[in-house]
Amino acid sequence: MSPTEPPQAVPFHIAIVGGGIAGLITAIGILRYNIPITIYEAAAHFGEIGAGVSIGPNAGRALELISPDVARAFDICRTDNQWESHRRNFFTCRVGDARKADKDGFVKPGVKVGDALFTTPFKVEGKSGGVHRAHFLDELVKQVPDGVAKFGKRLDKYSEAEDGSGDVVLHFHDGTTAQHTAVIACDGIKSRSREILLGKDDPAASAVFSGKYCYRGLIPMEEATALLGEEVAANSNMFFGYHGHMLTFPIEKGKTMNVVAFASKEQWEDSKWVVSTTKEEMVADFDGWGSHVHKILKAIQKPDIWALFYHPRCHTFYKGRICLLGDAAHATTPHHGAGAGMCIEDALIMSCLANEAKSVQDLEKAFTAFDEVRRPRSQKNVIESKQAGMLYDFELEGDDLDKVEKNFTTRMDWIWGFDIVAQVEEAKKLFHEVKAKI
Ligand SMILES: Cc1cc2nc3c(=O)[nH]c(=O)nc-3n(C[C@H](O)[C@H](O)[C@H](O)COP(=O)(O)OP(=O)(O)OC[C@H]3O[C@@H](n4cnc5c(N)ncnc54)[C@H](O)[C@@H]3O)c2cc1C
Ligand SMILES: *[C@@H]1O[C@H](CO)[C@@H](O)[C@H](O)[C@H]1NC(C)=O
pLDDT tens for residues 152-178? Predict the structure, then answer.
């Protein structure tokens, strides 16, 4: 249906729990088909932490299919590598750890610590780039009509409506309730909905620590250029090392360099996942690394540590009329830079399925089809992303740089080269098959 046609009188009203990237883009996608929805967000307003997130070409293509407006929001916020020769590269890879070098500073013939080793080209069409999360969210919020989102609504539990409709009643922390035909739960990595849906005893109900944590920081581009030279500062780089790696990429149209430095530990004891630290402690964590990495670390003003958690594989994304989407369904480590992209793909599939649904019963069939097409791909990313973190940290192929290159230059193909149009068709086909069966 084209969005200019008059509203269809669908006999349902969907709740979206959580207004992050996943909830907002799903909302925009569904609203485009004139299907009524309400967003319930725990916070007092939409908001995001100010950090960079990179979006791959698969997600860029999905955004264009969701709506020209979300694609425009991405364009407004999106920052590519600044040099034309680097435009279509995920990363330029380098060794950052000086312990890999021989006595003359070489990590392999002709290549020193900090020098370019190889690049990982995207290979496929589709817009990509880094966005400042808060800015992207702001642009998305502009596309959500007034009144659609309710704030200060922290979901505590669900119950079935007593009127025999089979509707879901959402119970919020403030004591209020709301009744909806179905719920799309986008409540993020600490999802309450996931816990309820899978049951607290399911080991997949909550996220587990990945063995990696990271320091995140932003550096003004002028300062980064002075420290590293323009080619390194203005384009994305990854620095490999032993049990750690660092990545940098430009955000905010090249005004800022985003830095993420990863390190390893066995357990995460703190109940908080983001903790502040001192520059001294951060620098000490990269003892033995080369001058590029040290210069970058020293330029970060107020470093935070982020513990990296992910969701173990669960057996379903939905139960009855509640369906998990985005990080609530498949929170991942960030090593593929594909977590938000999977949320965007989810949003496209869910909105197309919602548009197929014409009755209340159809919504459950839509969730069945969503689960069937989205679960394998998104869970594969969770597993392989964790493996990628090990690759960059010389824990998968060791410090054999040829093997690391071979692995890295092909491991992203199935993510970036994905045919999302075919998956939309597959999901619709499944939906109609399930519909025919019942
Ligand atoms: C360090 C790090 C780096 C990353 N880097 C990348 C990257 O480079 N590329 C990439 O693609 N992805 C990256 N990601 C992943 C990406 O950020 C996430 O996949 C994405 O932001 C998840 O969006 P979401 O909307 O599902 O969840 P969230 O953004 O967590 O949003 C959840 C929303 O639900 C609300 N909420 C929570 N509980 C409730 C409740 N009970 N009731 C009501 N509302 C609730 C929250 O307030 C929030 O607004 C990274 C993640 C991390 C941690
Ligand atoms: C990367 O290496 C791991 C471990 O050796 C292997 O399982 C995986 O298939 C490799 N991936 C690619 C794309 O080479």
Answer: 999 999 999 999 999 999 999 999 999
The CATH number of domain 14-78+128-206+312-392+414-433, selected from 3.50.50.60, 1.20.1250.20, 3.40.50.1240, 3.90.1150.10: 3.50.50.60
| Pocket of ligand 1 contains residue 129 by CB under 6 Å | no
Is 341 a pocket residue for ligand 1 (Cβ < 6 Å)? yes
**C-beta 205 within 6 A of ligand 2:** no
- Compute the C-alpha angle 352/358/364, nearest 5°: 75
**Residue 194: pLDDT band with limits 50, 70, 90:** very high
Q: Is 375 a catalytic residue?
A: no
- Ligand with an atom nearest the CA of residue 58: 1
62: pLDDT strictly greater than 70: yes
**For the chain, which residues make up each domain, given as ranges?**
14-78+128-206+312-392+414-433, 84-126+208-310
Which structure tokens are listed for 24?
A: 């907002």
396 lines ligand 2 (CB under 6 A): yes
Query: Given a cut of 50, is residue 197 above it in pLDDT?
Result: yes
User: Residue with structure tokens 């054999």?
Assistant: 400
- Cβ(57)–Cβ(126) below 8 Å: yes
pLDDT tens digit sequence for 209-238: 999 999 998 899 999 999 999 999 999 999
Pocket test for ligand 2, best of 118, 120, 387 (most atoms within 8 A of CB): 387
Q: Which residue, 251, 292, 255, 271, is CA-closest to 100?
A: 292
CA distance 295 to 317: 44
